[in-house]
Design a protein that fits this description.
Largest sheet of chain B: 3 strands, antiparallel
Oligomer: heterodimer
CATH topology of the largest domain in chain B: Arc Repressor Mutant, subunit A
Radius of gyration of chain A: 53 Å
Helix content of chain B: 55-70%
Structural class of chain A: alpha+beta
Number of helices of chain A: 16
Shape of chain B: elongated
Largest interface: A-B, 39 and 64 residues
Radius of gyration of chain B: 23 Å
CATH architecture of the largest domain in chain B: Orthogonal Bundle
Number of strands of chain B: 7
Chain lengths: 456, 264
């Protein structure tokens, strides 16, 4: 009995069940060392006991077997076994233990516990006699459960029977089981194709290739039959009737069932293709033989028989160091492509030059007064002068510079004019409009009138 | 990931072909990290959309998590691989040829550039796979395939001296390749190898992991794994039968001649 597969698949789950780690603590909490004698003797005794009880179970319906008979069977294999050890193992196996788990059968997660089903054997109260419990009876079945896809055909039949017998709840389970097995097998094949020199795995497929072919074709047929049954009106009607009764509980729909079955066929097809590929490769004795392909030899061949230009172009696109050559330009593409040496400005200490001092009259209003002050004064002596007439006469132009601001400044602050006596500034009503070059000026006209001082 | 992000990711992938959330060998830019996180967190619908979109262009986006050797813990890496037989329309070889032409100055023609690239590439494959006894389908060993520049240059020189120069050009139907491979100086060979490595690094197929140490990237290893069976393997086998056929013919003719000679 290959009970190791069963133990190996369950042991980590049991570790998690027994874990003392507090929720939210560091994730490196683990117990890697298994306590015990590390010799497997108790397990061996347990398995011998189960085997004996199973034999007895098959021969005599639900009868108990005495301790001495059990001991005798164990001693046949392990002659030196101590009686107490066997009694101890029997004691452990008949004691139930409590397992806690969360179930979502009714939608919301609920904590459940299982105790009754954990005892593997039952003991009669008044005598030292034992038999397998229902759980114990299922151990050999579980341990011998098919571990590869060789038995997938049987599972496909299970699926077909589930469809024919309208056992709707079981259909996804069976379908899942088949897909899982096939997927595991597909991964194995992938590993075999990938690895050079891993001959064992490959051989197991090659030797049984005929068998595999039959299994696959049979399974595909069975699945097709299942699909036909599923598509039949009778099935649909019955399913709908069942869903109506059971509406609140079951999440199943026709499409879900249909997809489950369809998925199997898809996985089967992949499986078939990969298996054929693997066997073809192995039959040609390449890749899986130890030597990898010699690329250098090929390069030499290439000197003799060059690629045709079409093949060469294809080669470059498939294997060459190609980069994007398309209009996906970025402004940063040319960044720093051309380096420009930045010339740093010459640092020099500030120097005061006394030779080129600007004459004060050159600046602003003084310059204007120098040029036009006299003329304006003469005009004022002659009579009132308005801003508009001054502009019209071009008094604002000095050495071809337009100094209109200075002209206005003189009109607003006429004290700077070389005149004796006081000046009156008059404002006219309304806006004056004058065009100078391309600009229009709108302003209130100002008029200067020279008043004769009392001393004159 | 919204549609704008999809566009950003797509443009980034086309330009760089690899996105890593973190790396043991180089500094990952902020942009690249953003892209990796966008791709990692993208909902299934968007990922499927991107995959289909890329599929139409002959490309395949493959993600690797830290269970692949060479990726640091918690890292996720995406590579944009060329699918077999599809010739992605955005990828071109003009730049590649121009760069190879720069190796030998003005006397390297476009034809020479192509020939040298192909031959150095095969020698590189020889170093990475044949010499190490690895199958091109193996992906997990990509980390251990480092080599130095001098190894590549030596391998190419050895190939030229031991194989190519021993071929009599008179026996060749088209001696173009032979002439091209034998007409350049020793120094130019190193220059060709140099430019070849630059190109491969530029295309993210090879990375520099030390001062003079190079290694194929995950992208390279994945592309070889993905495309070898459909794209290279047929080449490697179809040429051999021709060779076999010529060998048989040659032997039969000589036997016939010797028989004739004996008869006379």
């Amino acid at each position: 009995m290959n009970y190791i597969a069963l133990l190996a698949s369950a042991v980590r789950l049991l570790d998690l069940h027994d874990s003392n780690r507090g929720y939210g603590e560091a994730d490196n909490f683990s117990r890697e060392k298994r306590p015990g004698q590390s010799d497997g003797i108790y397990l061996d005794i347990a398995v011998l006991i189960i085997e004996r009880l199973k034999q007895h179970d098959d021969a005599a319906y639900q009868e108990y077997l005495s301790f001495s008979m059990i001991l005798g069977h164990v001693r046949a294999t392990r002659p030196d076994v101590n009686e107490n050890d066997v009694a101890y193992v029997l004691g452990v196996m008949r004691r139930p233990t409590e397992l806690f788990y969360i179930s979502r059968d009714n939608g919301a997660p609920e904590r459940h516990s299982e105790k009754r089903k954990t005892a593997l054997i039952e003991k009669i109260d008044y005598a030292d006699e034992y038999r397998l419990s229902p759980t114990g009876r299922s151990i050999p079945g579980l341990a011998n459960a098919a571990r590869n896809a060789t038995y997938v055909r049987g599972d496909a039949y299970n699926l077909l029977h589930a469809v024919e017998g309208h056992d709707y709840q079981k259909i996804p389970n069976f379908a899942d089981e088949i897909v899982c097995q096939l997927r595991a097998e597909i991964l194995n094949i992938h590993a075999a194709i990938e690895r050079v020199g891993r001959v064992d795995t490959v051989n197991s497929y090659i030797k049984n290739f005929e068998q595999w072919k039959n299994i696959i074709s049979d399974t595909i047929q069975i699945v097709s039959r299942t699909e036909e049954r599923l598509d039949s009106t009778a099935f649909r009607e019955k399913l709908e009737a069942w869903l109506d009764e059971d509406r609140n509980k079951s999440p199943l729909t026709f499409h879900k069932l249909h997809n489950e079955v369809l998925r199997i066929r898809q996985v089967l097809t992949t499986f078939n293709r990969l298996l054929t590929e693997l066997v073809q490769i192995a039959m040609r004795e390449r890749r899986n033989a130890v030597t990898p392909p010699s690329f250098r030899d090929f390069a030499v061949q290439l000197v003799r028989n060059p690629f045709s230009s079409r093949v060469e172009e294809h080669f470059f696109r498939q294997w060459g160091a190609c980069k994007l050559e398309a209009p996906f330009h970025s402004v940063f593409d040319g960044l720093a492509a051309v380096s420009i040496r930045e010339v740093s400005p010459l640092a020099s200490a500030p120097v005061f030059s006394d030779e080129v001092i600007e004459a004060a009259s050159e600046m602003g209003k003084l310059r204007f007064l120098d040029a036009r002050g006299k003329e304006i004064a003469e005009r004022l002596q002659a009579g009132p002068l308005s801003l508009s007439s001054a502009i019209a006469d071009g008094l604002f132009v000095v050495d071809s510079d337009v100094l209109i601001g200075d002209l206005v400044g003189v009109f607003v602050m006429p004290e700077a004019l070389p005149l004796g006596g006081s000046i009156e500034i008059r404002f006219t009503q309304g806006l004056q409009r004058t065009r100078l070059g391309i600009d229009d000026y709108l302003f209130t006209d100002v008029e200067l009138v020279l008043k004769r001082g009392p001393h004159e | 990931m919204n549609n704008t992000d999809l566009g950003r990711v797509y443009a980034y992938l086309l330009r760089n072909r690899m996105v890593e959330s973190k790396s043991m060998r180089r500094n990952v830019s902020r942009e690249e990290r953003d892209m990796a996180i966008l791709l990692r967190d993208a909902d299934a619908h968007m990922r499927a959309l991107l995959d289909e979109f890329l599929d139409g262009q002959g490309l395949m986006l493959k993600s690797f998590s830290d269970d692949v050797k060479g990726l640091p813990t918690g890292a996720i890496s995406f590579v944009l691989a060329r699918k077999p037989d599809t010739n992605p329309p955005f990828f071109g070889s003009e730049r590649m040829i121009a760069r190879m032409q720069q190796a030998g100055g003005s006397d390297v023609s476009e034809r020479d550039a192509k020939i040298w690239f192909v031959h150095i590439w095969f020698i590189l494959m020889d170093i990475l796979y044949t010499r190490r006894g690895c199958s091109p389908g193996e992906l997990q060993d990509w980390v251990e395939k480092s080599f130095t520049k001098s190894v590549l240059v030596e391998a190419v020189r050895d190939y030229l001296n031991e194989e190519v120069r021993k071929i009599d050009p008179a026996t060749l139907v088209t001696p173009t390749i032979h002439t091209s491979l034998t007409s350049f100086k020793e120094g130019t060979v190193a220059q060709f190898c140099n430019n070849f490595l630059d190109l491969m690094m530029d295309a993210r197929l090879i990375e520099n992991i030390g001062s003079d140490l190079y290694r194929p990237t995950l992208l390279f290893a994945f592309e070889v794994k993905l495309n070898y069976d459909r794209q290279l393997e047929p080449f490697l086998t179809t040429t051999a039968p021709f060779d076999g056929a010529t060998a048989v013919l040659t032997r039969e003719v000589t036997m016939e001649e010797s028989n004739n000679g004996r008869n006379h």
